Amino acid sequence: MSKKPDLSFCKRLPKIELHAHLTGSIPPSVFQEIYDQRISEDPALIDQLPNPAVLLADEKAGQDINSFFAHFTPLYALLSTISSLQYATRRVLELFAEDGVVYLELRTTPRALPGTTTEESVRAVLDIIRDWNDLRGEEMRVNLLLSVDRSRHSAKDAEDIVDLALHLRDEGYAVVGIDLSGDPNSPTSVNSFRPAFTRAKSSGLGLALHFAELPISSTRSELEELLSWHPDRLGHLCLVADDLRKLILQREIGVELCLTCNVLSGMLPGDEPGFASHHFGWWWAQQGRVSLGTDDAGIFASWNSGEHLVAAQHFDLTTQDLVGLSTRAAASILGGAGDKARLTRILAAYGRDEVASA
Ligand SMILES: CNc1ncnc2c1ncn2[C@@H]1O[C@H](COP(=O)(O)O)[C@@H](O)[C@H]1O
């Protein structure tokens, strides 16, 4: 059982992905399919849509944190119809399932497409998720978080997003939480979002917040403000002082770590930042509620199994450790009791089978 994990083990391992942004999870090949389809339906679009063969020709396109946020603008142009958005969503779900993810919390920023309302486009994504859960929910169960973009949304927009999330959840859609993301270089203080996020929390939605991504968004006052919202989970945590780390551990807040994203985008501090010095090592050693997320698998070309392999290689984890990592991740899902019971069942069965075959 306690062997060195290889990629095949990491793919087989029942994995829990809690930090995946929809648009950034779409690989270049899927953008190309969407582009080709749209051009074949309407050749005039050739003058309007960016061609992924050019836009994404450099495999590092968008990876640097300085160009990262602007990279989404042309991608949104390719996803400007309900059918392209739905096709991309379905393909992303298929790719996570092929990678051995058994529980996925996807997140996306509500936005109106030309000729549709914001609500219609969010429903379009949720319809794909509902169909998926109906047909393939035993293989991989999917829930959605709606994202508030700190650089583009106002306090009123955030309230509207919370209203939308509550309204869709109450209709039976798989909406489980609200995410705070977007470009942290924005001059907006996060404090203005407090009423929306605390209302979401008191209405039963989970909160997952991007936390201490860059020096500008790692001030003591911002981090204390975010912690005062009682988040369920925090993402990235690249620059967190020791006392706040301890508080996060004490409060058993889930920690979503995205190794490849942090390394390739240049988000980590230090002279020679790399996988081996990633703060995953600290959270793992402290028995924190850690999960490994991809952030944007389409941009960083690393899926959830790859993140597990990288963690195993750089932090000397065994196969048994990785089963333990899935168990720790399961503790901080925002899904309901049924989702938790299913994961407990899957991980127990997997642990037994691995012992039997060792
Ligand atoms: C370092 N990683 C990150 N930090 C902060 N925000 C991120 C992010 N990666 C993605 N996003 C957020 O997700 C949006 C695209 O997906 P959706 O249109 O929502 O599906 C980006 O515009 C950004 O706001």
Automatic annotation (TrEMBL):
Q: Which UniProt keywords apply?
A: Hydrolase, Metal-binding, Nucleotide metabolism, Zinc
**Does the record's keyword annotation contain Zinc?**
yes
Which InterPro entries does the record associate with it? Answer: A_deaminase_dom (IPR001365), Ado/ade_deaminase (IPR006330), Metal_Hydrolase (IPR032466)
Specify the Adenosine deaminase domain's residue ranges: 14-343
The biological process GO terms on file are: adenosine catabolic process; inosine biosynthetic process; nucleotide metabolic process
State the needed cofactors, names only.
Zn(2+)
Q: A GO molecular function for this record? A: metal ion binding
Q: Which reaction does it catalyse?
A: N(6)-methyl-AMP + H2O + H(+) = IMP + methylamine
Q: Which Pfam families match?
A: A_deaminase (PF00962)
Family recorded in the similarity comment = Belongs to the metallo-dependent hydrolases superfamily. Adenosine and AMP deaminases family.
What protein does this entry describe? Adenosine deaminase domain-containing protein
Organism name = Naematelia encephala
Lineage, top ranks: Eukaryota, Fungi, Dikarya, Basidiomycota, Agaricomycotina
